[in-house]
Amino acid sequence: MDYATLLQLLDTTLRFATPLLLACLAGLYSERAGVFDIGLEGKMLMAAMSSGAVAALTGSVWLGLLAAIGGSLLFALVHGVASITFRGNQLISGVALNFIASGITVLVAQSLFGQGGRTPPLTGGARSNPVILPFAEPMRDVPVIGPLYYEVISGHSPLVYLALLMVPVTWWVLYRTRFGLRLRAVGENPAAVDTAGVSVRGLRFAAVMITGVLCGVAGAYMATALQAGFGREMTAGRGYIALAALIFAKWRPWAALYACLLFGFFQALALRPDVVEGVVGVKVPVPALDALPYVLTVLVLAGFVGKAIPPRAGGEPYVKER
Amino acid sequence: MTVMKTLMGAAATLALGAAAAVAEPAIIFDLGGKFDKSFNEAAFNGATRWAQETGGTFKELEMQSEAQREQALRRLAESGANPVVMTGFAFGDVLNTVAPDFPDTKFAIIDMVVEQPNVKSVVFNEHEGSYLVGMMAALASKTGTVGFIGGMDIPLIRKFGCGYAQGVKAVNPDATVILNMTGTTPAAWNDPVKGAELAKGQKAQGADVIYAAAGGTGVGVLQAAADEGILSIGVDSNQNYLHPGKVLTSMLKRVDNAVYEAFKEGEALAPGINVMGLANDGVGYAMDEHNAALVTPEMQATVDEAAAKIKSGELAVHDYMSDNTCPAATF
């Protein structure tokens, strides 16, 4: 494998890791606050459809992004009402939302555009076009670092940089702010937070809404940057891989970045069986590469790579003592 | 209550009346979806053309999951639809079990041979059409490297790839053909994101013309090629219009004609195997105003010459499915 191939792989890795990372951080907020969210997939799908449809109708990717966040927030709100206000089962609510998203996105897109549940191909300003970072052109000829900067780091949609920026932001919010402390506390011991006079419901709703916003960005990235429009089931299980990444990262923001990059790298590798064959020396079946993220997650869950302990109050609706 | 009864009675009479008339033909679309802008959409266009010309109506069903296959087929056959046309090789096994249960219903399957007394099998010589677009790809390529992106890794798609590679090598024996498949499950027919990444990967390896034979996945391939400023080749339907000036041509597979003919024959559908090739206009390549600037008269003349040779039998393109090997490429 030569350097150019490696760069190309890393470039693909970053593109694939972005929706995973956004969804993974989204899940991190929600689960750290004690609300399991298996509906990341559904929210992303809803967001992808909203952004694809609105961007196609208005010709503006930014309105599409807003619509994506709106669509995703709507689902997050339903999840919040079902699992926080009415103390329903969080997993069932999430699964239900996934099913609803799978159907309603196609239905809405079909009734709007009549193209079999697809939105029309986006062009020009309706897409999230790549930005060339400063100094990318002049640095291109610098050996080793130049091509790395030009090919891999520069030339992505602004949403990619937003996703990367969200990692330190999430770290800072969770570990350096009062809100973050309370959010983590509400996922570990909601009764203590309640005793301190802080609203458990309010905090959990806030976390679920943040999840909605991040999933919205992830969906918009899928529909306007990775692809030019929405297609049926276009998230293709990324919400679940993000959940796997979240467990792999043990619910920590920086680890989430590495996990998503790793999973993105596996996905990129699966596209280049020729490279894998060249490096390993034997022909590795593509499905085996596709399965790697899940295999790793199972290994982590089985305790081989340290222990993954979920937030203690995760999955349990909080009932105030009377 | 009485009103309700009357209404329901009227409705029942209507329904009976409809059933007593000439049976409606039906079509089942495979997982790529009716609007995949490619294979299934061609079938839909053929059905629509029949409906417009005859004023008739047809039943249709879009598959949503693999598990529905047999159920969908039985339901349409039980509803009295005749003939029932299905698009896609994947119906082969199911049809083999369902067809004997409905001896009075005629079935037509595209892309697969099912030997039952009431089944018409329509297969295409995709390798011939792919050979022609392969020649065109080699003629248009400046780097000497061209790409092929298939959908699900099955012999039928390898047949496309093999014909393509032969066409490329016929023009430029030193050319490199990069072959990729999207996946090994039917989901590979509808994964434009992966298609786009595969196309970007092939471009990074030097390909400047990419042929997509991947159903709905091809939409992503064509999009990525247009984004990256290289040429692409569409498949099944004429896809030149998707990105005018960026799609070199499309390998036409006249699925629409096959469906149209089947519907037109109606209940008198003749069972047996029907091979559609270059000679009977079953396959070909697309020329229209969207790609006129990309294809020079010399290129077209070269390709047409080869087409004439294939038609006359002077030139034989190797069919991957005949012996599961390809002289021009390895999968």
TrEMBL record, chain A:
It is found in: Cell membrane. InterPro entries: ABC_transp_permease. It is a multi-pass membrane protein. Keywords: Cell membrane, Membrane, Transmembrane, Transmembrane helix. It comes from the Bacteria. It holds the Pfam family BPD_transp_2. Its main location: membrane. The keyword Membrane applies. One of its GO terms (molecular function) is transmembrane transporter activity. Signal peptide: none annotated. GO terms for cellular component: plasma membrane. The chain crosses the membrane at residues 50-79, 91-113, 158-175, 205-224, 230-248, 255-271, 291-310. This is ABC transporter permease. The lineage of its organism: Bacteria, Pseudomonadati, Pseudomonadota, Alphaproteobacteria, Rhodobacterales.
From TrEMBL, chain B:
It comes from the Bacteria. GO terms for cellular component: plasma membrane. The keyword Signal applies. It comes from Aliigemmobacter aestuarii. It is found in: Cell membrane. It is a lipid-anchor. Belongs to the BMP lipoprotein family. This is BMP family ABC transporter substrate-binding protein. The keyword Ligase does not apply. CDD domains: PBP1_PrnA-like.
